[in-house]
Design brief:
The complex is a heterodimer of chains A (103) and B (481).
Chain A: H1 7-16, H2 23-40, H3 57-62, H4 80-84, E1 90-91, E2 94-95
Chain B: H1 9-17, H2 23-41, E1 44-47, H3 49-64, E2 76-80, H4 107-114, E3 118-123, H5 157-164, E4 170-175, H6 181-187, E5 191-193, E6 213-218, H7 221-231, H8 249-252, E7 261-265, H9 275-290, E8 294-298, H10 306-321, H11 339-350, H12 353-366, H13 372-395, E9 398-402, H14 418-422, H15 429-434, E10 438-445, E11 451-457, H16 463-479
Parallel strand pairs in B: 2-3, 2-4, 7-8, 7-9
Antiparallel strand pairs in B: 1-3, 4-6, 5-10, 9-11, 10-11
Helix pairs in contact in B: 2-3, 5-6, 7-16, 10-12, 10-13
The chains are: A mainly alpha (103), B alpha/beta (481).
Chain lengths: 103, 481
């Protein structure tokens, strides 16, 4: 069967997404992604050359030119302990990870 | 009150004021109900007993002192498990966050508690809110309390089931493409999606940031208005929350709907719509006409492109948002020899199949060479869909459609075919993409007794209009058998 997405592309996307797929998953996702991509292809015939992308929802909703931004002021933020307490491996004030080497 | 009775917010208020029951007793009663039914329904993932009783005792102390009670005093409420609760495990229905205990509170939850609500616990949902049946939860599916062989809808399936089964007076859900409205329809309770930016999302764990919204599932429309009044409003902690004044939703609720122009887009009544759903929704529209609404035909020509557009935008945003789960700062870590191996091991073991599928799809769409063809094109079609709504609201005050093309389907019926599952959101994703508010209100049942939902959309920040029409309909439809 001729699929829109190749096995290599599936592996490349998995690599980009930091997903380690089993070979069964590669084939499963390849078929499913292909079906979904075919369905999504229905947007292709639409002429959108004169249409602006909808990059911001709230502007349309409020008519505002920019979102409400708060003042850029320092506020107390003593949360490091609580945040580090959730880490699988922490040594205050750091998160610990395996040594970073060239991939 | 008997165990089977359904509490509303007004009923709780009256019972507490008349000292018929204390907040502590009511809380205990709800935990007993949950104890009885949850093994069957799997609606709750975690209970916050200590926190609930402490809040109930605060409410009881206020009653004892004769103080004025806040709007949700003693009202037992459930929270979808994608919304952060300080000190209470928040898993998002995922193994990757199985042990995660948020160090902070979502603004919506904080506002509920400040209004006196008793938070009972966290409800089951599709993993990271990705699904239309609740079958994508890592902690097992939820069953529809109306019919146990059927799904409760999703992704807020646990919230909808908890409310429908009387295991909570109200619940918070989240809606990205239909995840409050569709389970509301499946379980036979009202489910409201507010305007994008109306309710703060601080503490909502992100799925698709340009679409995600928090809203209530309740026993009736009046309760939806009450909860909305509490949770709506600007929040400095959420830069996407709107600084638009919040009306008193409950006060506007009983306005007559006479003379309102309701648009019925033919594009929502085409192929794929179940005949019983069509019949009941059309009967619902006829009832609104009988109350003096003026029915107007509408064309929303880009409706058919909504699912394709939605699955590009939502998966692209999801792939970016879910990049944060890497085993470093919170949640699951599966060790590896290198940091990259640790990321991959963690994500492979931590995410379920639908989440991986969407991350893959989104990553593909955003990858070099495909961005313009998919993501940029979808954002443009999204503008066209939003324009369909803007054009329609030049002519009508509200739009009425079915909530979902079919009633609740059977467990397992669509799990093998992701695209079929996506099509369950065909009538809800349009409003999600446009950013407008919508509600699903129950409008009868199929011959087999499965609930059917009717959807009402209004212009941005038109929650009052949505609620007013839904309330008028609810009142009229429950009065006429």
């Amino acid at each position: 069967m001729d699929l829109k997405i190749s096995r290599e592309e599936v592996l490349r996307v998995a690599e980009l997404a930091h997903l380690e797929l089993t070979s069964e998953e590669v084939e499963l996702y390849r078929g499913q992604l292909d079906e979904i991509l075919n369905y999504i292809g229905k947007l292709e015939p639409l002429d959108v050359s004169q249409v602006e992308p909808m990059a911001q929802v709230l502007f349309a909703a409020t008519g505002a030119a920019h979102p409400e931004l708060r003042d850029d002021t320092l506020v107390p933020c003593d949360v490091a302990g609580a945040v580090l307490a959730q880490a699988p491996d922490a040594k205050a004030p750091f998160f610990r990870v395996p040594k970073v080497i060239e991939r | 009150m008997s165990a089977a009775s359904t509490w509303t917010i007004a009923a709780v208020r009256d019972a507490l004021k008349s000292k018929e029951i204390s907040a502590r007793e009511l809380t205990r009663d709800f935990f007993a109900r949950i104890e009885n039914r949850n093994r069957q329904l799997n609606a709750y993932l975690a209970l916050s007993l200590e926190r609930a009783y402490a809040q109930a005792d605060r409410v009881d102390a206020m009653i004892a002192k004769g103080e004025a009670l806040p709007p949700l005093a003693g009202v037992p409420i459930a929270i979808k498990d994608v919304i952060s609760t300080r000190g209470v495990t928040t898993t998002c229905g995922s193994k990757i966050l199985e042990t995660y205990v948020p160090p902070y509170e979502a603004t919506a939850v904080e506002r509920l508690e400040r209004a006196g609500a008793v938070i009972l616990g966290k409800t089951n949902c599709d993993e990271f809110a990705m699904g239309s049946s609740n079958e994508n939860s890592a902690y097992g599916p939820v069953r529809n309390p109306v019919s146990l062989d059927h799904v409760p809808g999703g992704s807020s399936g646990g919230s909808a089931a908890a409310v429908a089964a009387g295991l909570a007076v109200a619940a918070l859900g989240t809606d990205t493409g239909g995840s409050i409205r569709q389970p509301g329809a499946c379980c036979g309770v009202p489910g409201m999606m507010p305007t994008y930016g109306r309710v703060s999302r601080y503490g909502l764990i992100a799925f698709a940031s340009s679409l995600d919204r928090i809203g209530p599932l309740t026993q009736n429309v009046t309760d939806a208005a009450t909860v909305m009044s509490v949770i709506a409003g600007h929040d400095p902690s959420d830069s996407t929350s709107a600084a638009v004044p919040v009306p008193n939703y409950a006060a506007d609720l009983e306005k007559p709907v006479q003379g309102l122009r309701i648009g019925v887009p033919e594009d929502y009544f085409g192929e794929g719509l179940d005949s019983e759903v069509r019949e009941k929704v059309l009967a619902g529209i006829a009832l609104l006409e009988k109350m003096g609404c003026r029915r107007m035909p509408l064309k929303m020509p880009h409706t058919d492109y909504a699912i394709a557009t939605y699955y590009i935008v939502a998966t692209a945003e999801a792939s970016s948002n879910l990049a944060r789960y890497d085993g470093v700062r919170y949640g699951l870590r599966i060790p590896g020899a290198t940091v990259g191996e640790m990321y991959r091991n963690t994500r492979e073991r931590g995410f379920g199949p639908e989440v991986k599928r969407r991350i893959m799809l989104g990553t593909y769409m955003l990858s070099a060479g495909y961005y313009d063809a998919y993501y940029l094109r979808a954002q443009k079609v999204r503008s066209l869909i939003a324009r369909d709504f803007a054009d329609a609201f030049q002519k009508v005050d509200a739009i009425i459609t079915p909530t979902a093309p079919t009633p609740a389907f059977r467990l397992g019926e669509k799990t093998a075919d992701p695209l079929q599952m996506y099509l369950a959101d065909i009538y809800t994703v349009t409003g999600s993409l446009a950013g407008v508010p919508g509600i699903s209100v129950p409008c009868g049942k199929t011959k087999c007794g499965l609930p059917i939902g009717m959807q009402v959309f209004a212009p941005h920040f038109g929650e009052s209009r949505v609620l007013e029409i839904a309330r008028a309909f609810e009142k009229a439809s429950t009065a006429t058998p």
